[in-house]
Specification:
alpha/beta; Rossmann fold; 2 domains; six-stranded mixed sheet; four-stranded antiparallel sheet
Length: 275
């Protein structure tokens, strides 16, 4: 585990890394610098968690990876994003979906006035030859609770909508799923269920998952590896287990009270001086 400056990942996502960001800088509206040298990697076949307080730059990182910054007048001004061995820093988002990179948005992004099956069909939009019936049946096997929901998606509970959003991602036959705050707005019981599903997507379907979360406790239990972001870059990284056990992480996330800057957590500063 790295305690101060994280080791730079390899320049390209080849071999073990399905995804790698190398020193990525993102600017909005030509002036607002949000990512400041963001480097991280997602190992093939593993679950990686990206954690950090509000405004650290987690969602911006996912948008940079998915190629969705331009919709908000943002752009990658420095650094590279590599996916499956290729430089995709400036690749169009629909091309990335076709290549198996799928973002499940915060707030789920499902179409409320469409049915469950119609929403699933949307997930397969890049694959005209998809056998929707057969593939939807596979999704229903994974989420039996969705199977009998015949009405509009807007009538589903929060947990079911999250399952539908994940099911829609499955219809795209992805290699890498990016998930933005899947636990947001869900009850503790449902959070547990959703994280169980994330693990099953990984173990049963072999999907690589990059998870953005504020719920560090659950995310680190589910993740093989984690990164903690602050101010547009990584300040700490390590295995899920090591991070969950790390005193600074515990103090920062589980200490209660106001969240301070991660860099101000005492032992982090103390140890940083030793390095
Ligand atoms: P949260 O959990 O609150 O979503 P986050 O870590 O995902 O936090 P981001 O949403 O990536 O953080 O935002 C990081 C910073 O970038 C914030 O200060 C935010 O105000 C700024 N930001 C995000 N999107 C834009 C935008 N389109 N234009 C200008 N600034 C933006």
């Amino acid at each position: 585990m790295t305690l101060a400056e994280p080791a730079a990942p390899p320049a390209s996502a080849a071999g073990d890394d399905l995804l790698a960001l190398n020193n990525v800088e993102v600017v909005f509206n030509d002036v607002i610098l949000v990512l400041r040298g963001m480097s991280m990697a997602a190992r093939r076949g593993k679950v990686t968690a990206l954690l950090g307080a509000n405004g650290a730059g987690k969602s911006t990182t996912l948008k940079a990876i998915a190629g969705l910054l331009h919709t908000e007048d943002g752009e990658v001004t420095r650094g590279t994003v590599h996916y499956d061995g290729a430089d995709v820093t400036r690749t169009a988002p629909d091309r990335k979906v076709r290549d198996g990179l799928f973002l499940v948005m915060e707030g789920r992004g499902i179409v409320q006035d469409m049915t469950v099956t119609e929403n699933l069909r949307l997930g397969a939009f890049t694959r005209p030859s998809a056998n929707i019936g057969e593939e939807a049946a596979e999704v229903f096997e994974f989420f039996p609770r969705l199977k009998d929901r015949r009405g509009l998606a807007g009538y589903l509970s929060g947990g079911e909508q999250q399952m539908l959003a994940i099911g829609r991602a499955m219809m795209a036959k992805p290699k890498l799923i990016l998930m933005d705050e899947p636990s947001m707005g869900l009850s503790p019981l449902l959070v547990k269920e959703v994280f169980g599903i994330i693990r099953r997507l990984n173990t049963e379907l072999g999907l690589t998952i990059l998870l953005v979360e504020q719920n560090a406790n659950m995310a680190l239990k589910a993740a093989d590896y984690g990164y903690i972001m602050e101010n547009g870059k990584v300040v700490l990284d390590g295995t899920g287990e090591a991070l969950a056990d790390n005193e600074d992480v515990k103090e920062f996330y589980l200490g209660g009270g106001e969240r301070r800057s991660f860099k101000s957590v005492k032992s982090f500063r103390r140890r940083k001086r030793w390095l």
